[in-house]
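A reminder from the course coordinator: this example appears on the midterm review sheet, so study it carefully.

Given structure:
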């Protein structure tokens, strides 16, 4: 199995700390996620140490990802924000390629009160623009989001529509907290059947290549997006047992975005390993 966490701290230490917490994959921000400014070539030594660490720890480049900046909104009605978002995504791709990280994960965006159809069209257009100049060795992941704040992409039909309208081959990330927030009840067998059915009739499971593994601080379908430690939220240990009864979710990388530091993530990884056994 592939498991790990969203890692902060110095880039060069991410591979070794991943192993230390019991993981073999991870997600990172490529730069401060709340700043527009990115200096791609400023830290050569740090970048080289990271690449060496990946080789030394035998972490697979095609099981790891960069999470794009939180400032990116590919569906923004504000022309200035939209342009800056597209430029920043190009930098994320450039950094992923330099770091030999295969995937860049992004939220489809928010129309900030505009109609969902318009937001979906705008996001698709932005995505087509960034995909035009995409480095060949990097792929784009669209993450399922919580239905709040005008977000689009909170179900697989929307994600599929965004990808189709862009006319590019995109990949996808499932997030167990966001999905739960959107009403996908992964704690019941029926809910799992519905989830897999929806994936199969839209994007196809061969295009769902990553999973953010988070428990939820709030009950099913309440649109809050608050992540909780594994087993301590409304999904719970029993819920994750049902989730992992679907073989498919044991095969794709599971990345924790749960609260806490490396130690908390180490404990969560242990919890997940116990659930899957
Ligand atoms: Mn995310
Ligand atoms: Mn997520
Ligand atoms: Zn979230």
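Designed residues:
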């Amino acid at each position: 199995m592939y498991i790990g966490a969203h890692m902060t701290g110095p880039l060069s230490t991410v591979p070794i700390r991943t192993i230390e917490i019991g993981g073999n994959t991870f997600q990172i921000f490529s730069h401060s996620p709340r700043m527009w400014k990115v200096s791609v070539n400023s830290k050569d030594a740090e970048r080289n140490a990271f690449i060496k660490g990946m080789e030394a720890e035998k972490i697979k480049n095609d099981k790891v990802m960069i999470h794009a900046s939180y400032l990116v909104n590919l569906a923004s009605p504000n022309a200035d924000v939209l342009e800056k978002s597209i430029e920043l995504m190009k930098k994320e791709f450039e950094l992923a390629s330099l770091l030999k990280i295969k995937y860049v994960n992004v939220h489809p965006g928010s129309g900030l009160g505009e109609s969902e159809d318009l937001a979906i069209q705008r996001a698709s257009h932005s995505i087509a623009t960034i995909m035009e100049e995409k480095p060949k060795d990097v792929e784009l992941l669209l993450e399922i989001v919580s239905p709040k704040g005008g977000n689009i992409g909170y179900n697989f039909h929307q994600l599929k529509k965004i990808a189709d309208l862009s006319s590019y081959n995109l990949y996808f990330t499932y997030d167990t907290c966001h999905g739960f927030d959107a009403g996908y009840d992964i704690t019941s067998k029926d809910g799992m059947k519905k989830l897999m059915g929806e994936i199969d009739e839209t994007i196809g499971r061969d295009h769902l290549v990553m999973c953010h593994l988070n428990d939820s601080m709030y009950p099913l379908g309440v649109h809050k997006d608050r992540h909780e430690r594994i087993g301590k939220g409304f999904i719970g240990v029993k819920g994750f047992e049902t989730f992992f009864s679907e073989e498919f979710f044991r095969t794709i990388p599971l990345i924790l975005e749960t609260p806490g530091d490396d130690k908390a993530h180490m404990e969560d990884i242990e919890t997940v390993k116990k659930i899957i056994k």
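The pocket of zinc ion (ligand 3) is lined by residues 177-178, 225, 227 (CB under 6 Å). The mean pLDDT is 97.
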